[in-house]
Specification:
551 residues, 7-stranded mixed sheet, 28% helix, globular
Length: 551
Amino acid sequence: MKNRLLFIFLFCAAAHAANGEKILRITFQVAETGFDPVKVHDYYSGTVIEAVFDPLLTYDYLARPAKLVANAAESLPEISPDGRTYVFRIRQGIYFADDPAFKGRKRELTALDYAYSFKRFYDPRHRSPYAFLFTGKIAGLDELAAQAKASGSFDYDAPVAGLQTPDRHTLVIRLKQPDLNFSYVLAFPLTGAVAREAIEAYGDESPSHPVGSGPFLLKRYVRSSKIVLAANPGYRGKLWDFAPGDDPRQREIASQMQGKRLPLLDAVEISIMEETQSRWLAFERGETDIEYQLWDVAPTFMTDDGKLRPEFVRRGIQLDRTIDPEITYLYFNMQERIGDSPNPVGGFGKERIALRRAIAMSYKVDDQIRIIRKGQAVRAEYPVPPGVAGHDPGYRSLIPYDPRAANALLEKFGYRKGPDGYRRQPDGAPLVIRNASSPTERDRQFDELLKRSLDSIGVRLEIQKERFPELLKLEKQCRLMTRMAAWIADYPDGDNFMQLLYGPNTHESNNACYRSEEFDRRYEKSRRLADGPERDRLYHEMTRRMEVDTV
């Protein structure tokens, strides 16, 4: 039950304050989870982190396929012939934003800051949902993490063979084995450098006090309501210098931006608006400058052929439509129990697989796309989306939409209907599927579609309502039975999507809490391979395994 999102972006001229400041006003459709890079759970908080912190590398804004460029590093890394040693030279003269944690002195960004920041992903106290980016990779750090679990304290000052800083501006990273995606990891915004003094000064409040060396700093923060970023006055600045391809839109962007000094904005104001209708009305009234994922109300501003309606064109509004490297999917918790209670959809018994398979066969993805998403999505047959290395446009799932066959499957495996028309488990116990979602109108529509699907096969559905941050917390604890979730590429390689079901990533990115020796073995082998036919074969086998188990 997967689909790819067709992103809709609406733009109007950025607002200018009375004092002439350039202020961009945008919205988040869910509440943030904080701004400490190792603790972030979600895409939205990550966009703030990207504005505040400096990763070593970043991406060419216009290059397709994706191309890495230097950011805080002077250049791309020097990589040893065996692919295990990376040497970075950090640009001199980069400073963290002024902060009381530095006690009045200017604080330069150094190689030690990156070494400290990477170690934090291994600290078991943080339970980082993105620890999978580093786990098992840097020599000596897994052992240090194991010692911390035993002692209760992570030793940040202990020497580590895989992280060395021969001088203030040189960082040497040694991997246990070659990792073809490691440079991409170091362009991921959550790998930006934090200052140890700031983390220690703010402690558990670090998520509310991000201190970075990036183009913006956090000026105002009202949890789950308002986030205001101001241009960092100490930022080094950089010139916009990216070459366009043949795409007319790219050429237009390049002509407008070439040679301009970044950041162009004085501030960014972010309002949390969970309801699509509220976001649309705010944009229509001119209260925000960019909106996206407005497919619920797409017919209001878009013609049937995907163009902006003339009345909005006359107002100077622009429309961009693009398929993002993202998938949305409904996952099942694969564990036998959730807390102290039996989990009716968990485990690998034939009757449990049959139940999951029947639910999948009852759900009409095309209805979700047509009715709820107003046609602004594309059906996904494969877990790796277009634009990401490893995507296969010719793959077709083995699980069809077929409620009749789904009903027959449930009958075969002993899920009999009671007098109320709903099925019971093979042992006679009540059968209730509990789906978790947020208390928004959009999620209410998803809930209704899922209920109609399960009603068609006689399976009772209950809805568990939680705010977005709580949903993320519960799924990392394997405490949700089912949920509609999404994943957007952290880096442009299929590995980032296939790892979503890798057993050791449970409590991090593997929200289905799925553990399959067959899947894990193939995944581990695929990580050692470049994009190509051999890895494609493994990805196919892993995807078929997912379908057989119906995760």
